[in-house]
Amino acid sequence: MTSCHPKLSSSVYEESLSLIPGGVNSPVRAFQEIGIPPIIARHGKGDLLVDIDDRVYVDYCMSWGALLLGHADPFVVRAVQEQMSRGSSFGLLTELEVALAKTISTSMPSIEKIRFVSSGTEATMSALRVARGYTKRSLFVKFVGNYHGHADPFLVRAGSGVLLLPQATSLGVPQESIQHTVCLPYNDPQSVKDLFSTRKDIAAAIVEPIATNMGLVPGTREFLETLREETRKTGTLLIFDEVVTGFRMGLGGAQGLFGITPDLTCLGKIIGGGLPCAAFGGRQEVMDLLAPLGGVYQAGTLSGNPLAMAAGLATLSQLQQEGIYVSLQKKTEDLLTPIHKLLSEQEGVTLQQIESCFTLFFAKQERFQAFYRFLLARGIYFPPSQWETCFVSLAHTQESLAKTSQAMMDFFHS
Q1: Is the pLDDT at 225 greater than 60, yes or no?
Q2: Would you call 233 a catalytic residue per the annotation?
Q3: Is-catalytic flag, 241?
């Protein structure tokens, strides 16, 4: 059993509040939805996270899905250490960038050319810019509940990150910044048909093929196929935001799962192996509009950072091994099969699972808070919002999975 009010964590958090807005550098880390002080991490290994008071947790957040191999994977650590000994940043092209680009494009054939950046927000805003440059149009479409980072044009009904803000968008976003944003209902193919039947001036449609910030909600095949068909007919570029799903849903991402080819794809999380890294890529003729070849400008000092490239290569090379995703799926099923059976008899809570991702969603917020605190007290760490997605990693042991499954059953039987 663990306490929710450790002394060292409390003192560090108090100091952070005086130095950092809200005490955190990304809002959901504040644990506001749970109503407790945040966890302050010290180190992690495998499937375990240890805080500064030496409390140990089985981790199902895994740096919000980035750590498919778990914490401090030895192969990744060695690759980063070796690169660090040669230098951490050059602001020049390295072989590592070429190698990672080749690895990604081989796994995702829709990505003929790729540009590395440092965050998912950079990837999505850059993909939108190049789409606008290619089509010479301004209007673009996004979908309710889909989160594409915190760039101004995307902060319109954008998933869990903005749920607690006083408006549906964000303060500081001028109306002019979203005047070219059209927000449609997710999984509503008819609304897509209706819009594209009247507007032929749409530069891009960006979508999470599997939404991960409003709970875990897959796009329906009809919805995604309709979106692909309508965008193709009007010369609109289809952008898949696979920052979360890329290499999580298999080597081909969600697009491979659905068999749908987008024009542009945004990646992040797993391709950096736990270091800051993201990318956007797609059709060659579109990507070749980027400077220095074309007139669409995008740049970044740490884009293609060699440490991140080394970590990404070390991660993706392990994912190429036969049976890796079968093993990941089995771990997830071992964890959740008893819970699926139990919840079939429960009201007010649902369990959604896609591959190695899952969410438990409670009809009443106070019930979720009780569930979260129950698990946390037993050394199990889920993302601190029921709108967020939980992730199983290859590092999760049978012991940890059994412990977690039993703790969840204990809560629902209590």
Answers
A1: yes
A2: no
A3: yes
